[in-house]
Design goal:
Length: about 950
């Protein structure tokens, strides 16, 4: 069976017959179930994270369709920002932002734009191959003009509400990309690193002691302007190696020495100290001790050095009372204001700085410090904090409303709502929106020397106010050329910024429709959407930007239900990384096993939101277990059960499998209703493997294969069950389900309704459970006594009366008789052996092996060997052979009475004892040969 080939032919069938389109259109008139695609970045290749989240989306979109909803769905692509720019810089071999400017912004941006087409087509290809049904041709693309215009409209709305503001703030800064970042971006790039932290003393001018200061960023010492202590905190003056040092009382034990004096923080306020690095010019306002409330009492020394240009707390504490020393360039190197270090990268200058401190006699101690430090989420350079003029969205002003809207959202899993997500919302900071970059939506704000600023909300408005022609492409550098007329008479120029790319995707609910310029009805029908699903990392990303932007604009949450998916890691729990090469290209696995095994691995391993360990081993396992078992059930059906006429079977085993099927439908439906693809798939898999394949079909073999007796009852039962199983599986494993359902009904399973659960016979299922327990206990007895199942035994005794399935128990335990006897004591010694199958109820086997039973066991084993040989010789199931010759079987005479039966079973005209031309094999302690004469 070539599964990938089957899948490809199904894709072809779906495409040619427009089955996806029909599956949507057929539901017109039903209720709507709306969905919004979180746009992947159009750079690089689709990876397992993308595939995982797409597969899970697909499950619910298909499920809702089968439940009668109209589920219109289209894709989306994120095409701007650092992800695309950094990739392009790598391609062009650029190391700095200046190289882009030299290269030309127009050329650079055009290449960024062009670079998105390959990833978009890769995404389309993999989307089709994995069977994710979504209209990719109608995808929204964030770099399109219509999208940008909608974003401009929204920014103007925020502007009107006074939520868009400008100011000098300390922002996270990537010195390589030379741009500021938002908290969302910072949250994506934390990595654990070891830094050299230093304890440094600042000599007090007014008293005979020095202030002991601790910092993890020694380079900021060059920008020091003040020290901060806690007003009400207790400090001591301690003599350490002949030096008098001030340190927080709670932390003084870090240094050995004698305490000379105790004082309160407020007694230190206003004291002056000597500048550490006098080479940096500064005025007389500097170098004073102030009080602040953020001073840590658990780390450092309780005295914080303030460099307002490089720390948000420092900036706020200094509150413009001190000059802003900023001896660092935008690319993270020292300026000429620090002559001794000019041109050096601040984060690489550590050793030099430490040497400088030593020479000044200011260094007290060096300590390695391990911490999570933010890195650029695209280029992995450590970020610095940097004072900068920036544009912000004041989300803190609408924090209450955002929190309120979060309460209305159904989170799966629920604990994210007030946990990871709620926690992030509670710590909300204003959103740094402006970026000093090139490829993105230009910030539509124009400013004039007179201080007047204006925000533009549409192309029409821009055309009305522009002094020159408005370009057809709204990107930089064209838009930078547009000048507006200020009310003061002068020209207004656009600010040099583009906006944070995370804003782009957060605007998708309205911008994908070009709202409000077009499709107002479409927007209304789709807002808020019923369902979104993305990875856990989006709690600080898309889940947040969606909620923040749309709360600000519409006062509403933009999504009602959000399902979170876990990260995909390698088999050892390591991050999948191109450079480590610890994963196989998805297409290779798909070509080998088909995509269904991959889908099943991603759905059925762990809870949707848990981390998924993924690799070929797991895919292969699911291929063998679920995919092949399910397909083999269908192959078996095709071999033995075609042309069955539908009847209501009275056979208890048939009734049981129908009940189990209905039971499974009920459970699967319940799980899917609560967005639980994991339990739904587990339940279905358990049914297919344990109930259908290993139990029902196996136990019914004789009925299926003999074609007499109640063959039709069995065959039509299997047909019913496979059809229902196909319908149940359609949303979870759409390829296998289609192969099976279409194979029986000649109609697409994806145009059908989710199956009705039908009747469940609880009593019958309980009886089967009991029978299974009895069989299990009986098998255990055989194992403990080393008696193979093929060896028939005379009888099994059960201490409890059972209602059903005696025949199955006899068959499975290979015994002639089943007896009931509640007088258990009778059977506690040889030749009996027993096992408890439920509290105080026992299964007893009579282990006596008479010569007749022994002979029968040998015949069974011989029969198995012959069948095996037939398989090796590639004989078909029904193909007759002339003769089978057996050589060397010691017990030949004892098995003669069984030969008539055996002949029929192994489809041989005769079986004789004689000289066989075959290889020797071990048999029951001896050696035999078996020759098949065709
Ligand atoms: Zn960067
Ligand atoms: Zn003006």
């Amino acid at each position: 069976m070539n599964v990938p080939e089957i899948e490809l032919s199904l894709i072809k069938y779906w495409k040619e017959n427009k089955i996806f389109e029909k599956s949507v259109q057929n539901r017109k008139g039903g209720g709507k179930f709306t969905f919004l695609e979180g746009p992947p970045y159009a750079n690089g290749k689709p990876h397992y994270g993308h595939i995982s989240s797409r597969v899970i989306k697909d499950v619910f979109l298909r499920y809702k369709t089968m439940k009668g909803f109209l589920v219109e769905r289209s894709g989306g692509f994120d095409t701007h920002g650092l992800p695309v720019e950094v990739e392009m810089e790598k391609k062009l071999g650029f190391k700095s932002k200046k190289q882009i400017v030299d290269y030309g912004i127009e050329r650079f941006n055009n290449e960024c734009k062009a670079s998105t087409s390959k990833p978009i087509s890769d995404f389309k290809q993999i989307t089709e191959r994995i069977g994710f049904w979504i209209d990719m041709e109608k995808s929204y693309i964030t770099m399109e003009d219509y999208y940008i215009e909608s974003v401009w409209w929204s920014l103007k709305e925020l502007w009107k509400q006074g939520l868009l503001s400008e100011g000098d703030k300390v922002v996270p800064w990537c010195p390589r990309c030379e741009t500021s970042q938002s908290n969302t971006e910072v949250a994506l790039g934390y990595k654990e690193i070891v830094d050299k932290s230093v304890y440094v003393k600042f000599k007090c001018k007014d008293r005979d002691f020095s202030f002991l200061v601790w910092t993890t960023t020694p380079w900021t010492l060059y920008a020091n302007v003040a020290l901060a202590v806690g007003k009400e905190l207790d400090y001591v003056v301690k003599e350490v190696k002949g030096e008098k040092l001030v340190i927080l009382s709670d932390l003084h034990e870090k240094f050995e020495g004698k305490i000379l004096q105790k004082l309160k923080g407020k007694e230190l306020e206003g004291l002056n100290y000597e500048q550490l690095f006098t080479e940096v010019k500064c005025d007389e306002r500097c170098f004073k001790v102030i009080t602040a409330d953020f001073v840590s009492t658990t780390e450092g020394t309780g005295i914080v050095h303030l460099a307002p240009a490089f720390g948000e707390d420092d900036f706020n504490a200094c509150d413009k009372k001190f000059p802003l020393l900023k001896p660092v360039n935008e690319n993270g190197t020292f300026t000429k204001d620090v002559p001794s270090l000019e041109g050096m990268d601040v984060r690489k200058a550590g050793d030099k700085i430490i040497k400088n401190l030593e020479e000044k006699g200011a260094l007290v101690k060096i300590e390695n410090y391990t911490h999570d430090y933010p890195h650029c989420w695209r280029c992995e350079t450590p970020l610095i904090y940097y004072a900068r003029n920036s544009w912000f969205i004041q989300v803190t002003k609408i924090k209450e409303k955002i929190l309120e809207n979060n309460e209305k959202i159904n989170w799966f899993p629920n604990y994210i709502k007030n946990g990871r997500f709620g926690g992030f919302l509670n710590e909300l900071r204003d959103w740094n929106l402006s970026r000093e970059r090139f490829w993105g939506i230009p910030l539509p704000i124009w400013e004039c020397e007179c201080g007047n600023k204006e925000c533009i909300g549409s192309k029409k408005e821009l055309k009305e106010k522009a002094l020159n022609e408005v370009p057809s492409d709204l990107h930089r550098p064209y838009i930078d050329e547009v000048k507006l007329k200020c009310k003061c008479g002068k020209e207004m120029k656009r600010v040099p910024y583009i906006i944070d790319v995370w804003y782009d995707s957060g605007a998708a609910p309205f911008a994908k429709w070009h709202y409000p310029f077009e499709n107002q009805d479409k927007f209304k029908e789709n807002f808020p959407v019923d369902f979104i699903e993305e990875g856990l990392d989006q709690t600080r990303g898309w889940f947040y930007t969606l909620l923040a932007i749309n709360t600000a604009l519409f006062g509403e949450t933009p999504y009602k239900n959000v399902l979170v998916t876990g990260m995909v890691l390698d088999e050892n729990g390591k991050k999948l990384s191109k450079s480590k090469g610890n994963f196989i290209d998805p297409n290779i696995l798909i070509d080998k096993y088909g995509v269904e095994a991959l889908r099943w691995t991603l759905i059925s391993q762990v809870e949707t939101w848990e981390v998924k360990k993924f690799g070929e081993t797991a895919v292969k396992q699911n291929y063998n277990k679920y995919v092949l078992t399910f397909l083999n059930c269908f192959e078996y059906f095709k071999t033995y059960c075609l042309n069955a006429v539908e009847v209501e079977s009275k056979n208890p085993l048939d009734k049981w499998i129908i009940s189990r099927m209905n039971h499974t439908i009920d459970k699967v439906e319940g799980y899917l209703e609560s967005f639980d693809a994991f339990r739904a798939s587990k339940k279905l898999e358990d049914f297919i493997i344990n109930d259908l394949s290993n139990w029902y079909i196996r136990l019914s073999r004789e009925r299926f294969e003999s074609k007499d007796g109640d063959w039709n009852e069995a065959a039509s039962t299997l047909k019913k069950v496979l059809k229902k199983a196909g319908l149940t599986a359609a949303c979870l494993s759409p390829f296998i389900a289609e192969h099976i359902y279409y194979g029986i009904e000649k109609q697409s399973v994806h145009l059908q309704d989710f199956p009705e659960k039908g009747e469940v016979d609880k009593e019958l299922e309980d009886s089967m459970d009991e029978a299974r327990k009895i069989i299990e206990a009986g098998r255990k007895i055989r194992n403990l006594n080393k008696i193979k199942t093929r060896q028939p035994l005379e009888r099994v005794i059960i201490t409890k009366k059972i209602k059903e399935f005696e025949e199955i128990i006899k068959q499975e335990l290979n015994v002639k008789r089943l007896e009931f006897n509640d007088d258990f004591e009778e059977f506690t010694q040889e030749p009996f052996a027993y096992e408890e199958f439920e509290p105080e109820q026992y299964v007893v086997l009579d282990l006596t092996i008479t010569p007749e039973l022994k002979a029968e066991g040998i015949v069974n084993e011989l029969s198995r060997r012959i069948q095996q040989r037939r398989k090796e010789e590639k004989l078909t199931v029904n193909q007759k052979v002339k003769k089978i010759i057996v050589e060397g079987l010691k017990e030949w005479s004892s098995i003669e009475p069984f030969l008539e039966n055996l002949k029929e079973k192994v489809r041989a005209e005769s079986i004789e004892n004689g000289k066989a031309n075959a290889k020797e094999e071990d048999f029951e302690g001896g050696k035999i040969k078996i020759e098949i004469v065709k």
